[in-house]
Amino acid sequence: MAPHGSHGSSGSADDSPSARTSVDVHAARVDAALEPLRTRALESVELAHALGRVTFDDVRSPIDLPPFRNSQMDGYAVRAADVASAPVSLPVVAEVAAAAGAPAPLRPGTAVKIMTGAPVPEGADTIVPVEDTLAANDYVSISRGREAGEYIREPGSDLRAGQAIVPWRTRLASRHLAALAAAGITDVDVIDRVRIAVISTGSELVAPGEPLGPGQIPDSNGVALAAAAEAAGADVVLHARTHDDPPQLAALLDEAVALGAELILTSGGISMGDHEVVRELLEPLGAVVDVLAMQPGGPQALASWPGLEGTAAVLVVCFPGNPVSSQLSFELFVAPALREIAGLPEAGRETRVLDSAVRSITGRRQFLRGRRTDGGGVTTVAGPSSHLVAALAASDVLIVIPEDVTELAAGDSVETWEL
Ligand code: AMP
Ligand code: MG
Hints:
With 419 residues, the chain is of the alpha/beta class. It is 20% helix and 30% strand. The protein folds into 4 domains: 4-40 and 192-342, Molybdenum Cofactor Biosythetic Enzyme, Chain A (3-Layer(aba) Sandwich), CATH 3.40.980.10; 42-64 and 162-191, Molybdopterin biosynthesis moea protein, domain 2, CATH 3.90.105; 70-153, Molybdopterin biosynthesis moeA protein, domain 3; 349-418, Beta Barrel (Beta-clip). It has helices at 9-13, 23-34, 80-83, 174-182, 221-231, 246-258, 277-282, 323-341, 389-393; strands at 42-46, 59-60, 70-71, 75-78, 88-96, 111-114, 126-129, 133-136, 139-142, 152-153, 164-166, 187-191, 195-201, 205-206, 217-218, 235-242, 263-267, 288-291, 294-295, 299-305, 314-319, 349-354, 358-359, 365-373, 377-380, 397-401, 407-408, 413-418. The chain has a 6-stranded mixed beta sheet with strand order 7-4-6-5-9-8. 39% of the residues are buried. Adenosine monophosphate (AMP) binds at residues 200, 202, 204-205, 217, 219-222, 267-269, 271, 273, 320-323.
């Protein structure tokens, strides 16, 4: 395994594979740094805003479901004993519709016309569906008998008061919201979302859509990382951009902290050139800056930024600036923990069959872009370069080539990660 803990220049000066830190080592240290984020606080949200949130605790119903004895059919509420000798004819003495209030008790030998969902009169123990009846002159002819209890929904037959409607750590979908609403619950306790700040660094960056001066490019990492963070269940509290200017970056980090960020993601400024703003600012504060045995996404860093007075320092996970590198880095190092915290399923991983040969560099875990083909195949999309943002958009999987593999033939199996 490659040596690890190789900080900064020690990892960067030597580009030989053995000098690079393994992907797993960096993944493990980011994961360890993310550990405190797994302890979440409770937040109460209205049902209308609860979709996709994760329950903090079991949510118990304050009432029986259904809450009262009601009819499952449009028909006639009767006593089963009165229709046992069907065909029979019974006088219809009342009518009860949904929301009609408590009906009068049913007298033996009579029928009450009833609608679906309406409360069943006391004394009635079965509902004769309207299809089995013929009404005329305040009488109803009933063609066949019924068992007691038929077509009656008993209170609590779905769920008893005090039972859990939704257990803790459930990611709320529309069906859960329906059950909560049915129990009259308006607000639900969920775990709070991880608050993330996304900072793009680079003097060449402008906001997407701004006219481009010489050498300028739109900041595409910012929107990508913010969206990826949200897709992984996080709350993006800051999404900003800085020139390669340490004081400006420091000001943004302070702003992120002031906004309550628990995790700050940066892109750019950690490779070996001049004007590496993230390194310049954070390395003197103890950032681990490393070059990993992966392609793309070799340069990676992990740092912390002082919290507000009395609070812990805030974790800063730093990705390289190339668009494919930064998106891949997020997926590789940060997304799995965020998804787990947010109760989201793990990203799809599956083995597929290459439809053409590929090469990879010795000692690097390579992530190629690919598209799934019918019948379990995968085809590569464009080359391995890390600036190919459109090719990444045209892909639907990453193809993972392990460190020790340098060549694969058409027909070989590869691991793919769903994008
Ligand atoms: P860096 O990691 O800062 O050396 O940047 C590597 C490459 O990624 C350069 O070509 C940058 O212009 C590009 N890049 C850096 N940040 C971004 C960004 N936010 N959006 C798009 N491209 C970027
Ligand atoms: Mg840069």
